[in-house]
Amino acid sequence: xxxxxxxxxxxxxxxxxxxxxxxxxxxxxxxxxxMSGIFVLLASSMNLITGCTGRLNLGHAxxxxxxxxxxxxxxxxxxxxxxxxxxxxxxxxxxxxVLIGIPCLKLKGSYLAITTLAFxxxxxxxxxxxxxxxNGPLGIRGIPGPPTIVFGHTTLISFESKTxxxxxxxxLCVLCLLIIRRVLNSQIGRTFMAIREDEVRxxxxxxxxxxxxxxxxxxxxxxxxxxxxxxxxxxxxxxxDTFTLGETFTMLTMVVIGGLGTFYGPxxxxxIFTFLPELLRAIAEYRMILYGLMMSVAxxxxxxxxxxxxxxxxxxxxxxxxxxx
Amino acid sequence: xxxxxxxxxxTKYFGGLAAVENFDLFVKKGEIxxxxxxxxAGKTTTFNLITGxxxxxxxxxxxxxxxxxxxRPHEIVEKGIARTFQITRVFRKMTLLENVAVxxxxxxxxxxSSTLFSLSERKRExxxxxxxxxxxxxVNLFPKREELATNLSLGEQKRLELAIALSMNPELLLLDEPxxxxxxxxxxxxxxxxxxxxxxxITVFLIEHDMKMVMGVSERIVVMNYGKKIAEGPxxxxxxxxxxxxxxxxxxxxE
Lengths: 325, 255
Fold this sequence. Notes:
A: two-stranded antiparallel sheet, 14 helices, B: Rossmann fold, 2 domains, 6-stranded mixed β-sheet, 11 helices
């Protein structure tokens, strides 16, 4: 019964999202909505590593960038089709995720944060300096979009309008979030939590923590890579400036304020913190100060994020109703 | 009775300190064995060595005739040794049900692809949850299954530890002070549980300070002091042993 109401709510939400391009005609707004889709993916994938497993990963923008560059290079240098490139973008990121995951296995807390931060910077510097491949700080322009989807003689979707990209990111988000939700509700999801709570204890209940931690990094990297490859083929221009430490902190803000370790938190955070900077364009440079303030306030007053606040509001209400006194 | 666990010349140094030194031990299949000794005698270190949380400086440990020193903790669990912790280490921000369910890892063996695509994996997860519910019923915590472990009292956390350890179907169960900090009624309940566990044919090896419990449940007692074994035998014999009395109460000063 409860499952079916959830299913119907889900369908209604997706149905509502399908209708968005008919309501939002302004391409600028649609662009922001598409970007929020990308950041929902990024925040959710960062949450897998940082929220669920409790391992602060400050190199997440690097995964985003590797996905973008990986897909772009597979398509432009090797001449593969865009769809194949996007999948490869995800897989190449998994490779790097595992590569950085292995030396990070024994690291915790601030040590892991520093190591992943360095990984992020190295990746960014490689993008800037490996000119033959990445065209350096100038970036790569003219990245092709996905090919037009034709059925018989009728054109079904041509990736020229923002609307078609909106539907593509919607499909990607729904697929990826379904996978993430299934993983979080499964035995693997429980092992992630167990490792966050007490790694040694997790070993003593039969969990191969090394294997699970690598799995965790690979998963987180994959979804960030997919987000990156979508970004590359959507904006059609990538440069190292996009994949900076600042971007990682934006993602971290989304995860923490949305609700660390929850499924819905990063989704809400991702949407809010893509729209907020647009609303705050007037104060431009001071935005980061505001972010810092919000983060501090959030950590002190709502450690479980917006989702936690929402949940305690609901349970608080039902508890009041339940108690006779 | 056959020997299920055997340690020979077990030694562990922390820097210059010998926490455990030349310690020999055997546990017979199906018995209840207690390890006692003053604080700092090396009892918990011995448990850590058996379960792979520390590696010994010297010596060897065999379980069912198989060397287990080189194994990682999760592999030792797989061989059939489960333990509880003295200072409870339940997963605090997980529900009771999740706490026990996560310990079904060996039975479920999930991979990413099996999690996403395999129906039999879903069945294994479901039976893992059923097993967890059964174990929570056994330790009388079923009504609290959806609560976070951090909200439990100390006595309840110890019972949760017991449920987690038992849910892994161990052949040898190591209990590190299972009744420490419990009131007499709670202690009584745990003693009953240990009786049931033993009835299932599980070998129990426990560390305990509560003498009423030690003398009541154990068939054999090993006494440690300063990392060495100072006595071994049935409860009545050990309690009369002068070396044991000295270790616990000190020596009478001459005049």
